Queue: 3 jobs
Job 1
Amino acid sequence: MRHEFSHGGEHPYSCDVCSKTFSQKSYLISHIRIHSAECPYCCDVCSKTFSMKSFLVRHKRVHSGERPYCCEVCSRAFTQKSSLISHKRLHSGERPYCCDVCSKTFNQKSHLISHIRSHSGERPYCCDVCSETFSMKSYLVIHKSLHSGERPYCCDVCSKTFNQKSNLISHIRSHSGEHPYCCDVCSKTFSMKSVLVRHKRVHSGERPYCCEVCSKAFTQKSSLISHKRLHSGEHPYCCDVCSKTFIMKYDLTRHKRLHSGERPYCCDVCSKTFIMKYDLTRHKRFHSGERPYCCDVCSKTFKSKSHLIRHKRLHSGEHPYCCDV
């Protein structure tokens, strides 16, 4: 009879708290634990508790290292069957979940749900420390580690720790030199998929993040967030040595090296050291002769973006700096 409900679409079991309905009584019992916060299933290794037995079974694979679900195409293994199903869509190209608003498609239902919130503005996950809200639970989990200081993911090579597993995976590639993501336009390779996505906007000209105050558009969400602080006057990052404040965390990190004298980026050609990675990247172009920034008017090339911006003013006649005397 329980199986017949799955065909008939019947949901005879209803939650007294939120009226959500279920086809099986066991599903209702598990759901009710969301409201009661009951977690009767406990891991005997780390004592973490769960509302459903299936969650405990899946969690214990973290300790055992078991990955029972294997892709027959590339042999990659997973702890969850749902992860394998989603992964196989990378090979097939299938994107079965479609947004009703903009028709964008996704290979995972969770990605569609998160995307829909970009249209609705819904941010259902709230930090109980500072009340900041998020569109995805994973973003909240990452954010809360900023309050707790927890960095559970550690690099085996240099012992650097991270609050996200994805950051650890990307960091490990700095040791291995692996760049698995390749641009199909210019063949430049990247260690992170997010960096490739951002890079491809250089070719497409896409600037999806727009300031609602001045309409300036950006290729990165982080750039928009930093830009909006110019309007609000917010300087959330403060130096604990001299109390100077900054709009961007990046600027604070660079500033603190003036106090510590740290210059962590070293040229492998001439051994010159730099405070910031970007300064090293720009410096290495003097050795390689690379000039990646090209003027779209006269095709002249430059080693740095700032030099290109300054050059383009010769064509536009722009004189943005004015003497107040």
Job 2
Amino acid sequence: MKKRSATSRKGGIKQTSGPGSRRSGIEAAIRRISKGKVSTYGAIARAAGFPGAARLVAQVLRRGFDLPWQRVLGAGGEIKLRGDSAIEQRLRLEAEGVRFRGRKADMKEHQFKFPRRESAKNR
């Protein structure tokens, strides 16, 4: 079976889409999150060029290898995992210096800011 990938032109830049490119883009965005910082599923999807694909980020994390998964949180800084996994995530984040306000990470202090992508008009 032949592997297919669709390409399109958007804003004068050639973009390749397909499961492999989406996955690698999301993994790259996750790896950019610094130690002691956190981000949300939605922010990672936007940074990878797939706005609205927060669930895809969760799928990549589930299947990923050697990713800093503990740095990815739900909207508002909430740990979305349950049970022992949630406890492990919080402990890992606290070991990196992330502080919590109740059940949520202090996003004002620890949110990783992805650089803004240049819009097509500014190029």
Job 3
Amino acid sequence: MAKPFEDTALFESWRDTKLSNFSTRLDNYLVEIEDPLKLSSTEFEKIRKTCGESSFCLIKIKEQSDYASVINKINSQLGLIDYDKHLYVKTNGLASITVSKRTDQSEFIPYTDRELGWHTDGYYNEEENRVRSFTLFCVNPSLSGGETSWVDHELIYIKLYEESKDIIEALCHPRAMTIPANIVNDKTLRPESTGPIFFNDRTSNALYMRYTQRKKNIQFHDSLEISQAVEALDKLLEDIDDIKFSHRFNRNEGILTNNVLHKRTSFIDNPDQPRLLLRGRYFNRIN
């Protein structure tokens, strides 16, 4: 996998453009969709442009009778059709992110009410199944908590690059992070995945990040440089209020992203109307 921005002048040009498009106002990233079954040219272009420049876009729609089909329609209009067929995805390509009572499913933190640390989606996938974008849409919010925070991983790269090129060099190591195979009853549900944390994705020719702060069952390459680089990354993620966003999604609100780094706080559910978000993971970017 190619290392991104080995040319300093190219990096500086890209960085300056990236920073010029950044805004701290969340409203600047919002598109209110009038008819989700048929995006207007203005809505389509703003979503495409915003995701291209900032790696995410917020959307808001009106009340619907069938949210899954409507969200799928929005996604398909953006070219998001080829979805990640992971364990709990439904036939329409969306997974229901809600507290699960199934023993096997509740082993995975997204399907609980617990806190989720910083991660990118599909960090354990092999190259041919790389998650390049995901969408998340709120059907029912929690009673309290469940706030989502996210940060454009390209801004994280910029901060680390300017702190030390040695950190970037270590995080681009081809064996920086390994996720062991998922084996249940001697059956391999997912093979071992080894690769860099930052790299240039050949398919999209875009800067890609695969990472999780979850350290259980995660193996980092045995080198002092990589250990220090991961420590520097985690330290940075503790102090990024100038570039991160946080929002507790309400009903009819969602986010479309080029697989940005994100996390979730723990929450208290409403027993009468449990928290439900619809998530789609796709193999291409929104741009």
